[in-house]
Structures are given as structure tokens and as C-alpha cells.
Specification:
This protein is mainly alpha-helical and about 130 residues long. The chain contains six helices and no strands. The longest helix is centred in the N-terminal third of the chain and has 33 residues. It is elongated, with a radius of gyration of 19 Å. It starts with a helix and ends with a helix.
Length: about 130
């Protein structure tokens, strides 16, 4: 199979799974919130830093993992996992392209994919540094 086809499938399925996770989290949040008798209040998720309140905003992978391990599963953690997967999908696509070009013996595109991968990793590290 050609490298382009494999990369397109990785991007398609990664995007689809991440969207499904985000929608499941949103529906789970709505069901949990309305079952508890509270009105849906999405602003508290966005305004965490502005109001210095303790809210359900995940700022690390460890916090997302903790939300996924608790019972019942935190629906905001499911949505956050979908966002993380959406961010990592292009990185996985570049890794698949890098491996595909390397196994095909295409040195030029292997180098290009390697440079792109390094740029993506550096941008994630710089972004996480604040």
C-alpha cells in the first residue's frame, strides 16, 4: 500500500475517533449535569483562569488520566482526551510517513518528514512550557 494512503487513513480515523470522544464527553456532561438538577453551565469550563475558581478544566495528561480512572468516568476528561487525540493525530501521520518513506528507501522524503516531526515536537514542547 502506498504511503499516502496509509497516512490518509491514519488522519481520517484519528480525526473521527477524536470527534466521537469529544461528542461522547459532551453528551455525558449534559446527561450528568441535567440528572443532578443543575443547569448546563459551560462558562465555568472556560473561565477557570479568569475567576481563579476550582473547576473541571484539565491542564495535564495526568489529570485527564485521573478523570478517566474515576467512577463514574468524568465526561470532561473524555472530551479532553478527544482534544489530545486530535492534536496528536497529525504527529502520528508524520511518524507513519517517516517510517513509510524510510522503508521505501526514499531518502529525500524521509529527511523532510523527519524535519517536520522535529518541528512538531519542538512546538509542542515550547507550547507546554507556557
Amino acid at each position: 500500500m502506498r504511503v499516502e494512503m496509509i497516512v490518509s487513513r491514519v488522519l481520517f480515523w484519528g480525526g473521527l475517533v477524536s470527534i466521537v470522544l469529544m461528542l461522547l464527553g459532551l453528551v455525558g456532561y449534559a446527561v450528568r449535569t441535567t440528572r443532578d438538577g443543575d443547569v448546563l453551565n459551560f462558562q465555568r469550563l472556560v473561565e477557570n483562569r479568569e475567576h481563579a475558581r476550582s473547576t473541571e478544566v484539565f491542564v495535564s495528561l495526568a489529570a485527564i488520566g485521573k478523570g478517566l480512572r474515576q467512577r463514574p468516568i468524568d465526561p470532561v476528561a473524555v472530551s479532553a482526551l478527544g482534544v489530545v487525540l486530535l492534536l496528536l493525530t497529525p504527529v502520528l501521520g508524520v511518524v507513519v510517513a517517516l517510517v513509510g518513506f524510510w522503508t521505501a528507501g526514499d531518502r529525500r522524503y524521509t529527511v523532510i518528514a523527519g524535519i517536520i516531526l522535529v518541528e512538531l515536537v519542538v512546538s509542542f514542547l515550547l507550547g507546554s512550557a507556557g
